[in-house]
Every structure is written in C-alpha cells, then in structure tokens.
Design goal:
Length: about 280
C-alpha cells in the first residue's frame, strides 16, 4: 500500500477503510474482513457510534499496532478545550488504544478553536501522532492555521469525480494540508457508478468504475477512505495499484467536475442547523 507523508513526517496509507453508517453490531465483522482484505487504515468517528466495535476488531486481528493507522473524529457537542480533552480520552478508551494516528475535528462548527488547542496538547503529549480537520472550506482552514501553532495535517472533505474541489485542494496543498476524500464513490449516488465516460475507461482497463474512481484519486495523491460492507467489494476497492490511467483518461475524468454539487453543503444555513442539532447519546 503506497503511503503519503503528512506535514509532520508521519506516513499515512493512501487508501483506507471507512465505517460511516455501518451499524455497531456489524462493524466488528466489517473491520475484521477489511483487515483481512489488506486495509491497514481505518476511519471512524465518535459520531459513528462504532468505535468500540472497531477497537475489538483491531485487537482481535493480531496485527502489530505499528502497521495500523487509526483515525477518529471529535463531534460538535464536544467542542471546546475541556470537553474535547475528555472526548479524546473517551475515543481512545472505546478504541482500546493509548495513541491515535490521526484525530480530526469532524465539523467546522462550535468552539473548534478550543478543540484545536486540545488536539495540539494531545499532539505534544504524543497521544495523537497527527491532527487535522474535516469539512473545512479553505477560508476556515486558513484562519485556523493563522491563529494556532500546529498546521492541520489533513482536511477530510467530500470529493469525487462529479465534485472535484480542485481549487480547495490547491489551497490546502499551498498550506501543507493533505486533502483526504470522503464518499469517494459519492455513496453510489448521482449515477456516478454508471457514468458513460468512467464506464468506458473502466472497460479499457478491465476494471470496475469504482476502481477507476479510486485510482484517479490515488494518481492525484489524494488520500481516500472508502466503505463497503461486502468482502468482495472491499477487495475490489483495494485492487487499484496494478493499473495506471493515462494522461488522456485523467483529462476526461477532470472534465466531469461539476456534474453534481456536494451531497452535504457545509455552507447552507439549514444544513448547518441540522448538523448542529445532532446530539450523540
Ligand atoms: N468526515 C466526514 O464528514 C465524512 C462523511 C462521510 C463519510 N466519511 C468517511 O468516508 C468513508 C467513505 O464514505 P461513504 O461511506 O460515505 O461513501 P463511499 O465510500 O463513497 O460509498 C459507499 C457506498 O458505496 C457502495 N460501494 C462500495 N464499494 C463499491 C463498489 N466497488 N461497487 C459498487 N458500490 C460500492 C457501498 O455499498 P456496500 O456497503 O453495500 O458495499 C456504500 O453504499 C466513510 O465510511 C467515512 O469513514 C467521512
């Protein structure tokens, strides 16, 4: 598995396995199968409410800790310096780990400056190897950078061929922040997996559309986390390092940008209200 080097020298697998919307009772099995398929980077979040099941699968796997890359995210209701400190300890406890590889602020809402100071403390104490953000547009990202000490290693955002965020990626890259894709397959929405251009490219390589989409991200060195509950799809999504898209194919895929907007608009007031109202129990 190719790795990328984050802005603090930490190595992160280019492709990982995400567990969003996998029910807690199914997560231990899914992560166990993902690890068996070869994934070593696992992406969870306090909000997914399946950290304990992820932790059980990691512990049962017998895979040495240093071969795993574990990411979690802190939720909005835990925003602020003190609350985030406790939330980080809670996540570590649920995951059964004494150190995280990456911890992200899940949403750019609430007192995320306080949360960031807490993550900076965790980073200095080596409880977290790298810290970052998620769903931050470049304006909020650059302001966070300006007013704090540690530059986020990663900004995990929604991106796929229909919503490419080329400008956002440039802004991140310029500031040393690695873009990480969530919903790289657009959750199968917008007809992305039936797209005629992607289908043609996939057929030319004897690959699936999902594989072409993930390969396109890998060639751009955008880290991605992809989810499946099915072992055959887990393996399919990992088999993207044995072929290469040509420059012409990359250009054709680039032209698909804008076919859809975001699945979730972090700047839409009603969407912000909705997400701020989500309380973890
Ligand atoms: N930071 C954030 O706010 C945020 C938000 C969303 C997601 N994420 C992270 O990103 C990860 C991935 O995003 P996502 O789960 O939203 O969406 P995704 O990975 O783009 O798509 C997952 C969907 O595609 C299907 N699928 C997977 N592989 C496939 C294949 N080879 N062929 C056809 N269909 C396939 C899955 O169905 P089956 O399960 O039935 O295979 C599932 O319905 C999440 O799990 C989470 O870790 C982060």
């Amino acid at each position: 598995m190719p790795q990328v080097t984050l802005n603090n020298g930490v190595e992160m697998p280019l492709l990982g396995f995400g567990v969003f919307q996998i029910p807690p009772e199914d997560t231990e099995r899914a992560v166990t199968e993902a690890l068996a398929a070869g994934y070593r980077s696992i992406d969870t979040a306090a909000a997914y409410q399946n950290e304990e099941a992820v932790g059980r699968a990691l512990a049962r796997s017998g895979i040495p800790r240093e071969e795993l890359f574990v990411t979690t995210k802190l939720w909005i209701q835990d925003a602020g310096e003190e609350k985030a400190k406790r939330a980080l300890e809670t996540s570590l406890g649920k995951l059964g780990l004494d150190r995280l590889d990456l911890c992200l602020i899940h949403q750019p809402y609430g007192d995320y400056y306080g949360t960031w100071r807490s993550l900076e403390a965790g980073y200095r104490q080596d409880t977290v190897r790298a810290i970052g953000v998620s769903n931050f547009h470049p304006d909020r990202l650059t302001d966070l950078i300006t007013h704090n000490d540690v530059v986020p290693a990663v900004d995990q955002v929604e991106t796929h061929p229909y919503f490419q965020r080329i400008g956002d990626e440039e802004a991140m890259r310029k500031r040393g922040v690695r873009m990480e894709a969530w919903s790289p397959l657009a959750q199968g929405r917008h007809g992305l997996l039936q797209d005629p251009v992607l289908t043609e490219v996939a057929q030319a390589h004897g690959k699936s559309v999902a594989q072409v989409v993930l390969r396109w991200l890998m060639q751009r060195e955008v880290v991605a986390v992809v989810k499946s509950t099915k072992p055959e799809r887990m393996r399919e999504n990992l088999a993207v390092f044995d072929f290469e898209l040509t420059d012409g194919e990359m250009t054709r895929i680039a032209a698909l940008d804008g076919t859809s907007g975001p699945g979730f608009d972090h700047r839409d007031a009603d969407s912000v209200d909705f997400i701020n109202s989500m309380q973890l129990t």
